[in-house]
From TrEMBL:
Catalysed reactions listed for this entry: 4 hydroquinone + O2 = 4 benzosemiquinone + 2 H2O
Keyword Secreted: yes
Protein name: laccase
Any one GO biological process: lignin catabolic process
Length: 576
């Protein structure tokens, strides 16, 4: 064989330029040998005219879109999102379900981890996605702006890592939301002023579209076009403000494979239940031969409380590409108050609990808490008429403590050791005045107001039993914990029995979540490891209950290693 011919400088330059162009066109290639790559997004918060139900209004959006843009990343990637506020409202963005390990300044809840971004201000959210993959979402975390400021956050597995199920033919994101003809900010402002319940939404939506069951909405219908004999991965997100939803597809079953960006043992069903703040991935296997029909996808609320609610149904249409769609079939949904259907569904959820996706539920716990979550009331101010129960104002609480919105961000107050007058560290670990929580309510249902936190040493193992109450009506409460995933180790009806109920806890394959529904007239038990230093909000994801004060905060202290400490805030952190 002859000796190799050396390449000319021109050829070397051409090869180098081609390689560089490949890295620009395919940024994943550049990061293949690293933990991940950096992905940049820009969110322009702007007012946009949107028309639904023959009603046009100006609403706060991201980049003029409703719902907002899809954010995509891989496990291990860094996200850098520049948010520019062009509207009169203050704004903050929460990356719902992201652990925010050592990046608590990017979590987003206004007055908890940051002051809001004011008009004409900018803030850059900068965080790395560590050990997570699946469907999450982002949303505004101030007042009721979440109604229109939300969008999917899709985290794909690392490159060359597959799903624990066969690769689907196609993936589709479906955001479940609510439409208000009025400005949602005006709705909650009026409710807080009068002390009564807020006006409800006019419609539910699939990806911002109400569908044909609503007036003037046939042309605003979400349609999912499918091919026969294929499997589709549907990524469902409940971004509605105040409603848990049943979801079903006519004449089709589907397989649940993931909730809150954690894989679960697959099970087949024709019904799912999803609370605000939750996500669910389902595999839909289409029929082998295209039928001459289309099929409604329906969602409508699950509700057991005493107040008013939006008792309407959103419809999308599943269409086979080659069918004539002469008939449209409609699924049957459970009754509005079908608590048994809800518990039957949630109890089927189990973690994979295998070598690739192990369960790390604490087998023993150092700290145990019993939190009552529910409604209450507060006195009507002097010289004012209030529209809440018996002339009072509606309120909501954890352990009968209703938390007002702080005047400055708790995380800054904690980090710079300026907590005086901002918060106290004496949140009770159990109700100060026990009562028959799901029985006859006590005579005094007034809440106390205060900004109190629980302080946890780093890596404390924690168990929280969240107990629903019957005060002003038993209803479910979707509780969301920032900064952590937790394991749902038990749930039940009635009052929690500390002597007997823990014997039935599932410590083998409990489902892992970031948002869980506290059953109506019942309780749920969660466990987690407090391995993330910072200040972390836990609250009801019904925005009306959050507005009434159903929230509390955890402070997790720094550990000893550098990787166990919260770094200083970024220089552009908004000021109050």
């Amino acid at each position: 064989m002859g000796a190799p011919v050396p390449a000319s400088p021109g050829i070397l330059l051409t090869v180098l330029l081609f390689a560089m162009s490949c890295l620009c066109a395919f940024p994943e290639v550049a990061g293949a040998k690293y933990a991940g790559i950096t992905r940049h997004y820009k969110f322009n918060i702007k007012l946009t005219n949107v028309t639904r139900l023959c009603h046009t209004k100006s609403m706060v959006t991201v980049n003029g879109k409703f719902p907002g843009p899809r954010v995509v990343a891989r496990e291990g990637d860094r996200l850098v999102v520049k948010v520019v506020n062009h509207v009169p409202n203050n704004i903050s963005i929460h990356w719902h379900g992201i652990r925010q390990l050592q990046s608590g300044w990017a979590d987003g809840p206004a007055y908890i981890t940051q002051c809001p971004i004011q008009t004409n201000q900018t803030y850059v959210y900068n965080f790395t996605i560590t050990g997570q993959r699946g469907t999450l979402f982002w949303h505004a975390h101030i007042s009721w702006l979440r109604a229109s400021v939300h969008g999917p956050l899709i985290i794909f597995p690392k490159r060359n890592v597959s799903y624990p199920f066969a690769k689907p033919h196609k993936e589709v994101s479906i955001m479940l939301g609510e439409w208000f003809n009025a400005d949602p900010e005006a709705v909650i402002r009026q409710a807080l002023q009068t002390g009564g319940g807020p006006n409800v939404s006019e419609a539910y939506t699939f990806n911002g579209l109400p569908g044909p069951l609503y007036n003037c909405s046939a042309n605003n219908t979400y349609k999912l076009k499918v091919k026969p004999g294929k499997t589709y991965l549907l990524r469902l997100v409940n971004a509605a403000l105040n409603d848990e939803l049943f979801f079903s597809i006519a004449n089709h079953t589907f397989t649940i494979v993931e909730v809150d960006a954690t894989y679960v043992k697959p099970f087949e069903t024709n019904l799912l239940v999803i609370t605000p703040g939750q996500t669910t991935n389902i595999l839909l296997k289409t029929k082998p031969i295209a039928p001459n029909a289309s099929f409604y996808m329906l969602a409508r609320p699950y509700f057991t409380g005493q107040g008013t609610f939006d008792n309407t149904t959103v419809a999308g249409i599943l269409e086979y590409e080659t069918s004539s769609n002469s008939t449209t079939f409609k699924p049957t949904l459970p009754p509005i108050n079908a608590t048994n259907a809800v518990s039957n569904f949630t109890r089927k959820l189990r973690s994979l609990a295998n070598s690739q996706f192990p369960v790390n539920v604490p087998q023993t716990v150092a700290k145990k808490f019993l939190f009552t979550v529910g409604l209450g009331n507060s006195p009507c101010p002097k010289n004012q008429t209030c529209q809440g129960p018996n002339g009072t104002k509606f309120s909501a609480s954890v352990n009968n403590i209703s938390m007002p919105i702080p005047s400055t961000a708790l995380l800054q107050s904690y980090f710079f050791k300026k907590s005086n007058g901002v918060y106290t560290s004496d949140f009770p670990s159990s109700p100060l005045h026990p009562f028959n929580y799901t029985g006859t309510p006590p005579n005094n249902t007034f809440v106390t107001n205060g900004t109190k936190v629980v302080v946890l040493p780093f890596n404390t193992s924690v168990e929280v039993v969240m107990q629903g109450t019957s005060i002003l009506g038993a209803e479910s409460h979707p509780l969301h914990l920032h900064g952590f995933n937790f394991y749902v180790v038990g749930e039940g009806a009635g009052n929690f029995d500390p002597n007997n109920d823990p014997k039935n806890f599932n410590l083998v394959d409990p489902v892992e979540r970031n948002t869980v529904g506290v059953p109506s007239g019942g309780w749920v038990a969660i466990r987690f490891q407090a391995d993330n230093p910072g200040v972390w909000l836990m609250h009801c994801h019904f925005d009306v209950h959050l507005s009434w004060g159903l929230r509390m905060a955890w402070i997790v202290l720094d550990g000893t290693l550098p990787s166990q400490k919260l770094p200083p805030p970024p220089s552009d952190l908004p000021k109050c």
